[in-house]
């Protein structure tokens, strides 16, 4: 205790240098711990972009393509999935719920997603469900619910009429002027890509495209689309975006879900889904009609060219929740082996982790830089302690004269550098949290990125412990010099 | 290990030879004895080995030959940390100048020996450290300075604080290495009178080193280092 009080008083005596040393260590600790803390936070929030979904199924393509196009709204989907195939899988006994996803349209640079109420019911991010700041889910085919960012940037309120354009990514080909949507819901902020999307019903997508095909000739069409979504899609060329349109005339229509017959490994071909339907919620009903129709079409397929167009009634992807998690991998294999229609089923958790690994390299680079700044901070402390020694030889001689052993001198100097390191680490952590709480708001507003303020993780604690230990060890260098010179000087330093 | 022989002289040197490097000889003292309770004036010009002799007596230097007995204990036979402990317990030391730790108050400077060494603290004869410091400060006329930062003291005040620190805990031996060289003549005598009185009160033997022979008459015993140190004679002559 005596030594600690001596060390503290000695440091306070050199207040400016001590403060600067503490500050330099603190800043490096801020960088190291801050990078780690933010990295872990962003990783968690990234991994939480989608939760609860066991599989994401898209047209045959790369894992990243499916993930990026569905969850992140980047990249172009590889193609579409016919409603027939979707309905058959939906009825698969291992599947608990599905969410259809229809992409390919946009509104002023924001994606428009066609889905059903199942989305609002089953989709989870960070274990939360999608909720509304105002209004509710779209039900009618002119209803649209908009994400937080969409509402903010475009200044949309409830009741706003909007027109959806065909195509995504800012390059829009045509606008569906004849089928305006009305904002019926504003989704509460999620800090996921949901904030930057608009959600309409599948029926809405269909009605919109149908109208476009007919050149707006029939103003009476919207209600028709709403009531008979299954019947309408006869004329739907690009419903699920350009790529879908390109592939549709090719192989897809020929490979009818029912006709190809399940290969041996493709376990029970889904039974007719009819009996399950009623259980699927209000909005599902609307869809049920379409499903039934599709099914009918299957039986009738090959009769007519017009019937083939029916297969263009596609969705881009669907999300799957399984009855039991254990079945996920088997189901994934089954879907990937589907010979009726080439599908790619991905496990979102695995795909997200894969994606994060790509980001991880940058993370390692950042960490290396942070480590070096800590080294620089400690080196600065070494320099300041070492260079102060010359001026303190007198002090050491006095301590020796009053009975301090050389080991006491060593302990004093090690304690001083240790104290500086501890103060630096503490200040650094304080700076991390001050910085986080200051930056959180602006970063949220500017980038829509949620930086969670979290407690220090074990990695951060380990870093702090290492820094403090290193601080004590660094003190051994000046301590050794002081020890040597105190032996040589004795009680008469050559001042 | 540092047993004190009450009847032994304060300092007894026998055939002490010491050099910092092999072949070099700074000290060569056949015999020197300083009685308990004496006030010794140790005179020597620069280069006569004063500092080296004090280093040996204080137990900071070691490695020569012969016997360096302090209070009956042969320091040459003690290990380094035992010598440190011995010094902490039985010795007070006053430097020529810059005696004080700059970041401690006057009081903390005086109390430093008792804080660094529990044995020294145990020698306060029933006084609390604060009482002991106050009493010494009173005797040395620095009572009003106790709570001041040492950086605000004059040189004379600093030396009195150093004396108080050397005397706390009733050391048997106080070694003063030209403590008055930075003082003017009036203050020199005043300081010495206070120092003598305090040493007497504490019962300490005082070894006072100086090159200023004007002070010599004030002491009870005078030792000329060039006379007893054979290694210094050629240089002195």
Describe the strand arrangement of the main beta sheet of chain B, using strand numbers.
6-7-8-3-9
Span from first to last CA of chain A? 30 Å
Number of strands of chain B: 9
- Uncertain stretches of chain A: 216-311
Give the count of helical stretches of chain A.
16
What share of residues of chain A is helical? 40-55%
CATH homology superfamily name of the domain at 37-50 and 87-232 in chain B? P-loop containing nucleotide triphosphate hydrolases
Structural class designation of chain A:
alpha+beta
Strand count of chain A: 15
Largest sheet of chain B: 5 strands, parallel
Q: Which percent bin holds the helix content of chain B?
A: 25-40%
Amount of beta strand of chain B: 15-25%
What percent strand of chain A?
A: 5-15%
Summarize the main sheet of chain A.
Answer: 11 strands, mixed
Instruction: Name the overall outline of chain A.
Output: elongated
CATH class of the domain at 37-50 and 87-232 in chain B: Alpha Beta
> What best-fitting shape of chain B do the alpha-carbon axes yield?
globular
Oligomer: heterodimer
| Average pLDDT level of chain B | 85
Number of helices of chain B: 9
Report on this model:
The complex is a heterodimer of chains A (495) and B (237). Chain A is an alpha+beta fold and 495 residues long. Chain A folds into two domains: 2-47 and 361-491, no CATH class; 55-214 and 309-346, no CATH class. Chain A is built from 16 helices and 15 strands. In chain A, strands 1, 3, 4, 7, 8, 9, 10, 11, 12, 14 and 15 form an eleven-stranded mixed sheet that branches. In chain A, strands 2-13 form a two-stranded antiparallel ribbon. In chain A, strands 5-6 form a two-stranded antiparallel ribbon. In chain A, helix 2 packs antiparallel against helix 13, helix 2 runs antiparallel to helix 16 and helix 15 packs antiparallel against helix 16. Chain A is elongated and about 100 Å long. The longest helix of chain B has 18 residues, at 185-202. In chain B, strands 6-7-8-3-9 form a five-stranded parallel sheet, with helices on both faces. Chain B has helices spanning 50-58, 80-90, 106-116, 118-121, 129-139, 155-167, 185-202, 225-228, 233-236; strands at residues 11-18, 27-34, 39-43, 65-70, 73-74, 91-94, 173-177, 205-210, 221-224. Chain B has a domain at 37-50 and 87-232: P-loop containing nucleotide triphosphate hydrolases (Rossmann fold). By secondary structure, chain B is α/β, with parallel strands linked by helices. The N and C termini of chain B lie far apart (42 Å). At the A-B interface, helix 1, helix 14 and helix 15 of A face helix 1, helix 2 and helix 3 of B.
């Amino acid at each position: 205790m005596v030594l600690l009080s001596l060390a503290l008083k000695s440091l306070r005596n050199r207040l400016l240098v001590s403060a600067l040393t503490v500050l330099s260590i603190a800043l490096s600790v801020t960088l190291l711990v801050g990078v780690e803390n933010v990295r872990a936070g962003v990783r968690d929030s990234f991994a939480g972009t989608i939760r609860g979904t066991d599989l994401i199924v898209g047209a045959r393509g790369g894992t990243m393509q499916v993930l990026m196009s569905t969850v992140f709204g980047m990249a172009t989907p590889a193609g579409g999935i016919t409603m027939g195939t979707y309905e058959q899988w939906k009825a698969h006994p291992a599947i608990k719920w599905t969410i259809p996803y229809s992409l390919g349209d946009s509104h002023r640079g924001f994606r428009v997603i066609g889905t059903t109420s199942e989305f609002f019911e089953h989709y989870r991010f960070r274990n939360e469900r999608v909720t509304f700041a105002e209004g509710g889910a779209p039900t009618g085919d002119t209803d649209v619910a908009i994400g937080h960012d969409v509402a903010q940037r475009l200044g949309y309120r409830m009741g706003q009429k909007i027109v959806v354009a065909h195509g995504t990514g800012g390059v829009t080909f045509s606008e569906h002027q004849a089928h305006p949507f009305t904002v019926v819901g504003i989704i509460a902020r999620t800090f996921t890509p949901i904030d930057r999307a608009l959600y309409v019903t599948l029926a809405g997508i269909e009605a919109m495209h149908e109208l476009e095909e007919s050149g707006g000739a029939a103003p009476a069409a919207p209600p028709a689309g709403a009531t008979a979504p299954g019947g309408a899609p006869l004329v739907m060329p690009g419903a699920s975006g350009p790529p879908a349109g390109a592939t549709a005339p090719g192989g897809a229509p020929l490979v009818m879900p029912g006709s190809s017959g399940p290969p041996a490994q493709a376990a029970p071909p889904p039974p007719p889904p009819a009996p399950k339907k009623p259980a699927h919620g209000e909005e599902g009903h609307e869809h049920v009609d379409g499903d039934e129709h599709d099914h009918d079409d299957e039986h009738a397929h090959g009769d007519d060219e017009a019937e083939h167009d029916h297969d263009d009634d596609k969705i881009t992807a669907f999300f799957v929740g399984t009855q039991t998690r254990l079945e996920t991998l088997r189901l994934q294999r089954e879907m990937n082996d589907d010979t009726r229609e080439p599908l790619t089923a991905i496990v979102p958790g695995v795909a997200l982790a894969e994606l994060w690994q790509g980001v991880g390299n940058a993370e390692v680079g950042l960490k290396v830089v942070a480590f070096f700044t800590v080294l620089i901070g400690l080196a600065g402390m070494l320099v300041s302690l070492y260079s102060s020694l010359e001026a303190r030889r007198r002090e050491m001689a006095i301590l020796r004269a009053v009975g301090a052993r050389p080991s006491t001198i060593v302990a004093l100097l090690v304690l001083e550098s240790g104290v500086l390191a501890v103060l630096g680490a503490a200040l650094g952590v304080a700076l991390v949290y001050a910085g986080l709480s200051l930056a959180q708001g602006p970063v949220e507003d500017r980038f829509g990125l949620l930086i969670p303020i979290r407690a220090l993780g074990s990695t951060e604690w380990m870093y702090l412990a290492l820094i403090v230990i290193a601080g004590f060890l660094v003190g051994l260098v000046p301590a050794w010099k002081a020890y040597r010179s105190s032996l040589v000087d004795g009680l008469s330093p050559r001042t | 290990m540092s047993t004190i022989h009450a009847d032994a002289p304060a300092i007894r040197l026998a055939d002490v030879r010491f050099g910092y490097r092999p072949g070099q000889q700074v000290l060569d003292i056949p015999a020197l004895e300083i009685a308990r309770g004496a006030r010794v004036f140790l005179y020597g010009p620069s280069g006569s080995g004063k500092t080296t002799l004090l280093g040996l007596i204080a137990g900071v230097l070691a490695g020569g030959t012969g016997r360096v007995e302090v209070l009956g204990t042969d320091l040459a036979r003690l290990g380094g940390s035992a010598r440190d402990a011995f010094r902490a317990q039985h010795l007070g030391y006053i430097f020529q100048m810059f005696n004080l730790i700059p970041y401690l108050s006057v009081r903390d400077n005086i109390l430093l020996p008792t804080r660094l060494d529990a044995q020294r603290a145990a020698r306060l004869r029933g006084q609390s450290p604060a009482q002991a410091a106050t009493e010494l400060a009173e005797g040395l006329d620095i009572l009003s300075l106790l709570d001041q930062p040492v950086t605000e003291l004059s040189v004379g005040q600093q030396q009195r604080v150093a004396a108080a620190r050397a005397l706390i805990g009733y050391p048997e031996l106080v070694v003063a290495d030209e403590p008055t060289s930075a003082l003017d003549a009036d203050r020199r005598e005043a300081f010495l009178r206070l120092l003598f009185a305090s040493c007497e009160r504490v019962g300490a033997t005082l070894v006072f080193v100086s090159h200023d022979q004007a002070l010599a008459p004030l002491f009870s015993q005078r030792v000329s280092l060039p006379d007893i140190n054979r290694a210094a004679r050629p240089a002195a002559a």
